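Researcher: Here's a chain I'd like modeled. Treat it as a single chain, no partners, no ligands.
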Amino acid sequence: MTKKFFAAAFALAALPGIAIPGIAIPGIAIAHGSMKPQHGGQVQMQGETLVELVSTPKGVDVYLTEEDEPVMAANYTAKLTQTAGTAKTEAKLVPAGANKLSAAGFKPAKGAKLVVALVDKSGAKIFASFQAN
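Model: Modeled as a single isolated chain. Structure tokens:
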């Protein structure tokens, strides 16, 4: 292939929305999986992990997925921290299903900042922030 072809390919790849198969462009992130809430909650993508926070009448549930596949909740220790004004409240999130963690009885305060902190068995940390409705 000629130098002109590669120059044209890279010029096109630099335009937003243009992708050329087989050519990776540094600095351009492509989403893996859906960002649509699967359980009616709020979602945040942190690295490869999608964190969905769902407030229910029974408390707060957190669902974990990567590329639309469930991530085993039992592989994490987790907590939920709420900051409402100057008050800070914490609750332990415990595995409650394949990819579900729960804080039973936790009631988010309207407008509060909620932070989900996850630590996997290797010590890697994931943080996802939400605002309570």
